[in-house]
## 1
Amino acid sequence: MLAKRIIPCLDVKDGRTVKGVNFVDLRDAGDPVELAWQYSEQGADELVFLDITATHEKRKTTLDLVKAVARQVNIPFTIGGGINELRDAELLLNAGADKISINSAAVRNPQLINDLAKSFGRQFVVVAVDTRFTDERNFVYLRGGRDKTELETDQWILEAADRGAGEILLTSMDHDGTKNGFDNVFLKQINDRIHIPLIASGGAGTQQHFVETFKQANVDAALAASVFHYGEILIPDLKRTLREEGVVVR
Amino acid sequence: MICEASCTAEKSAYVISNANNMIGIVNYGAGNIFSLTAALDRIGVAYGMVDEERDFAHFDRIIIPGVGHAGTAMRKLTESGLVEQISKLEKPVLGICVGMQLLSAFSEEGDADMLGIMPLRTLHFDGRISEKVPHMGWNSIFSTGTNTLFQDVPDGSYFYFVHSYFLEVDVNCSAALCHYGLDFSAAVQKDNFFGVQFHPEKSGKAGEQVLLNFAKL
């Protein structure tokens, strides 16, 4: 059976890991390649790198990072951040990235989704969506939840899927950072309406939260950052718990 | 294990002197092969590129990679002028993902004739299953008998799949099965021709073991 995926997310800037990482046996906590390798050894199913490098000139370091990860890590990985046109995606593909993730660039220019899917296949295109519940509805937000758009989240996700998104990474900004669990009600609403994989993000605090999102929302994958980076949840333990709860994992 | 200095995946080929346990990768322009060469580097298997017919002689084993559209891949392979030679090969050949689908007789993707090395059809998941398409992620596979390709790979091991088309099950050719809404061929074999639908280069240790097994055939 197809396994539910566990995905640690790493923020990188100028080729280095940004958020604090607290692994016991890590030589260099700022080295995304070593961290990625550690996660793959622990049984992570996939990795997401979110590139928050501010300047265009430093993007070269991101490509070097992608190449280094592709050389050393034997599981698939996605890179997001700073992808505005086909050329950006092509460079990442040739550097060894399995998928790219686009967020605000897709909102600004939805045709980008079609173009990327046509050029590289829809399996290469993850559309990341940040959502916040305001005025009784979920709206798409940009810039890490700061800028509200007029797009209703469900409508935007359906459009993105229609345009060729291969996967949706849905982050609830209301849940993100709370460690109170994923937004399973909304995730289920979305999951029931799309025919492409859905990755839950935002709110992971305990192992039980992962059990709940797989059981209640039936999402294909769950993503988290700090609970993994700080060692609050170890992936082998999480996999064991999920297995005991009847969730199919690798 | 972090071995920056010894990793040379960016090189497109090693210097080819004589065939010495090297894998030739059929280079016909069907997608990026960086991940494949990186995996071969990690397990210490030498490789080079097959660009034209005479290159086949330089290698002991051949890998046919492939991502994207099977019909397009078959067209590119035909344009490369390598088709006739591939069908005649007697050394071990491994097709990966679309490279495996090329070994079949026909693909619904582009309604295209394939190499016809195995009498199987490549079919679309759409309309045949209610699950999401593409089949993307880690799925367990079960061998249909003993196959050297899966030596030291426990039955039920997980491999990474990304595909919308699959090779049907065949009692003679299916070497391993996978289930996603229906049973399909996770791996096939006929004589010296092998194919895997999953991506061994992205399938953790199990995937590296399959590549190692192929390198030792």
## 2
Amino acid sequence: MIRFDAATKRYPDGTVAVDQLTLEAPSGAITVLVGPSGCGKTTSLRMVNRMIEPTSGTVWLDDTDTASLPAHELRRRIGYVIQNAGLFPHRTVLDNVATVPLLLGEDRRRARASALELVERVGLDPALAKRYPAQLSGGQQQRVGVARALAADPPVMLMDEPFSAVDPVVREQLQDEFLRLQGELGKTIVFVTHDIDEAIKLGDQVAVLRVGGTLAQLATPAELLARPIDAFVAGFVGRDRGYRALAFAHGRNLPVREEPTVAVGSSHPGSAAGLAGWILAVDAERRPQGWLPTADELDETVTDSRLHRGGTLATQGGALRSALDACLSSPSGRGVVVDDDGRLLGSVTAREVLELIEERER
Amino acid sequence: MSVDVLPLDASSSPLAFWSYFLDHRSTDLGWLWDHTWLSVVPVVVGLVLALPLGWLARRHAWVYPPMMSVTGLLYTIPSIALFVLIPPLFGLSVLSPLQVPIALSVYSTSLLVRVVADGLAAVPSETVQAATALGYRPLARFTRVELPIAVPVITAGLRVAIVANVSIVAVAGTIGLDNLGRLFDQGFTLSVNEPYYPPIVLGIVLCVLLALVLDAVVLVVDRLLTPWRRAVAAR
């Protein structure tokens, strides 16, 4: 647990970066600090490991006042990941990861052996272990940064915009893997971002800070979307809040209807009678591949190139947002629902999803 | 090629410096050795002094401008003046074996303070921050992270300093201190009625060779210290 107790950072020129911040980041959870530039989110983060010393107030790490420890000892107990990873260019991936264990006096061979395990754990090819950071892509470097922060198995991790310097596709992969890793490790994490979508995706709780370094709202992502406390938070959380909140609403009982299919590669799709314009094509494993227009000659072979691939897929038990999106994006108007292995369960219509949304507790 | 025992007669041949060398081999090799250590030791002393000074200039922004002014000023003092000024300042005799190394250490330090400060400034700030955040204490951070990353800039400065020293040491030869500069003095002395070049050419050849060898040594050291830079090229 990390607890800010009226923590304040005032610079000699009078600028207040963080003003009386009181906030608790519970153990085993991800607390995201988010806000526009100048809101003091990075300053707050750095007060935890005393890269920045608070002018007044206290930051607690469990029952320890962080100011009571020598700074370097405190920092060795806290993992730290920054934007652009900040890797040591003169050390191999393996030695980068082994940094903190070596500082703590572990012997080199053991430190490297456990570093190699971590390299794999963050999803990197172990063959990269002997490379230098400049030989890696931005996304790979960021993974090394995460591995390095985890190396001494600290209970607490601080992450300062760790995924903001990579392209959107890689960022999403990194976020997903970060959540998977956190599911296994259960660290106490404080995560800084300026990206509200990232905050909502990753946070168990989200602290929205406003310029001047004050806490505007501390809430779960769903609460933040449903009940922003004031105009600033509402504006910062942004548009489409109602729709985005559906990402946290789960429709366990999607009323899935059986959906007729044709197999890709078959030339005899069977009866298409009664189907309004489109028939769903599946592969041999019954994984949906796309929609085939029934206006086409149905006795021709069903090939990949003839399929309309606009429709997204919803999973049974997944968020209502993806169920609704599956309906809206499907050319037939029927949203495709699959199981966890990606096999077809059936379809659902937008009207049915909307009924579930309306039934849901508000 | 015939080796003439009378150097004066062979002075017209472009390779006459070689016969001159063979005739005075032991003296010349002695001077070459003197020249070598006089060029190298001050650079080592200069580096040892420049590391803390450069760190200071980097650490405290206000130190940098005055330190650069002072070191720049020291570097502009003509070497011959410095050779003459040092014995009284340090209480040495007029022709002391220490005055040249002291003077050259002043030059090397002046040159290398800026090099070290700029080399440290070139270390990416996120790398320094990461080192701090991972729990390096300031001295360990300097020696294990900042300095190794600054090596390419520092060795580039060392190459300049060492080659400059080879040339400045020769000046000390002309005031009678033992090193390859004595060859120029000899050439001047022997050119009574007509110019006599062999010792002068020999001096130039040996100085250039020495500079090339020392430069290569620094280059090799640089490559040994920075395997990570070549790995980038192999990407």
